[in-house]
Structure formats: structure tokens, C-alpha cells
Request: fold
Amino acid sequence: MGFVASKKIGNAVHRNRAKRLMRAHFIENIDCIKSGSYVFVAKPILLEKEFQETKKAYLEALKKCSALQV
Reply:
């Protein structure tokens, strides 16, 4: 599992917050994710959304790449 945030996200504070958000979503849904190697890349819009909105987008992305166990 890898979480990446480039300098396009912003300064170190913003990059770390983006990675923390992605980690939080991963830990919350760890039982639903198929085993494998994944790399999550943060986009600038991530920091503009609320936690529940980012959670929804996270789950949709996992469904799109068939990584969720239903």
C-alpha cells in the first residue's frame, strides 16, 4: 500500500493531510479491499472536499478498479 502526494497538492502540511485522509479511508475499509499492491495518488481537489465526500470518491475508485470485495 502506498500513499503519494506531489508538490502540486501544496506545501508539506497539505501533502501530509492528504495522505492522512487516504490512510484513514484505507484503515476504515481494510476488510473490504482485496489483497494486492495499491498506490493511491492524491489530487488537489482532495483537500477541498469534506471527509464523507472523499470517502465516497475513495470507494468509487476502488469499485472502478475492482479492488472491493462485495
